[in-house]
Amino acid sequence: MAKLARRDARSQTGLFLLEGPQAVAEALAFRPQLVVELYATPTAIERYSDIAHSAAEAGIDVEFVSEQVLDSMADTVTPQGLIAVCRQFPTSVKEILGGGTEGNGPRLIAILEEVRDPGNAGTIIRAADAAGADGVIFTGRSVDLYNPKVVRSSTGSIFHLPVAVGAEFEIVIEKAKAAGMQLLAADVKGDDLLSARQDGLLTKSTAWVFGNEARGLTDEHLALTDRAITVPIYGHAESMNLATAASVCLYESAFAQRSST
Description:
The chain is α/β, with parallel strands linked by helices.
């Protein structure tokens, strides 16, 4: 079980760990067919009786274990008495982009290029979910979607919207453009987000591109996008966390798109 904290074990088995009541509840509510095994302490099942009920409805048996055994299975220090083993559920870029047919594609997606911090990656998935995005795409240089920290940081949002992994950046950009989407790169050297809002740019079908936490996007990758946009800092903060900036960008597009319909 604990070996699923390693990427090579996840790749070989096609499985991943799900820890804690929130994540387990979301899996049972949205993708119960993915849950292979469910482990719990007797105390946790008493506390989270709704999860026990959902598992029973899905025909999933709960295997009771002690706190010590559960802790040895978990990646976290405090798994809160519940751990599930789930099947991975890959989505293709084509599924997210609607086959690349202009006019029938998504309105809002996030593309992650070389995003390495699992907490940032999971939080961006959560923000995209909250903003009503149509999907998230991880390029092959980004962190593994099924990394336990990514899964935890998404707080169950990985079960709510399609997430594609492993694609080449240039191919993703090409397919997004073919689907009629504009490509906006979040970059400190870009135009002010407020000016983009005032220009009406954010009402369009948009793929936001987020780069590496330390280096951002390369000049070559920036050149493939339509426009670079920066989230202005009005106070004295030295910089803004990638996931925070991504949340602002996604919500700005969500607000603009909904106000224009």
